[in-house]
Amino acid sequence: MVTGLHSLGLYTLHLNVTAVGQMVLYSFSVKVEDECRLTSVDEIAAAVHEVVGRIQEDAISNCMPSSDQ
């Protein structure tokens, strides 16, 4: 997650991930770096949502049993 945010030009100040059963709570604070190309709060929120979505998709695909067995 930190790498994904950094690639957007966002510096991670705080990150907390809590998992209970199948629910995950992400709490983080980021600083917008000078080289960040995102220019509005909506763009930043959408980009962060996409990063978190990719992480969730990866987690789900890693938990699924392989059909090769």
Structure characterization notes:
The protein is α+β, with helices and mostly antiparallel strands. The protein has one domain (2-63). 42% of the residues lie in helices and 30% in strands. The chain has two helices and two strands, in the order αββα. The protein has helices spanning 2-7, 41-63; strands at 10-20, 23-32. The chain has a two-stranded antiparallel sheet. The radius of gyration is 14 Å and the shape is elongated. It is found in: Nucleus. Its main location: nucleus.
How do the SSEs run, as a string of H and E?
HEEH
The unreliable regions are none
User: How many E-type strands?
Assistant: 2
Oligomer state equals single chain
Mean pLDDT equals: 88
Structural class: alpha+beta
The tally of helices reads 2
GO cellular component, one term: nucleus
Subcellular location: Nucleus
Keywords: DNA-binding, Nucleus, Transcription, Transcription regulation
GO molecular function: DNA-binding transcription factor activity, RNA polymerase II-specific; RNA polymerase II cis-regulatory region sequence-specific DNA binding
Keywords for this entry:
two-stranded antiparallel ribbon, alpha+beta, 42% helix, 2 helices, 69 residues
In short:
This protein is an alpha+beta fold and about 70 residues long. Helices cover about 40% and strands about 30% of the residues.
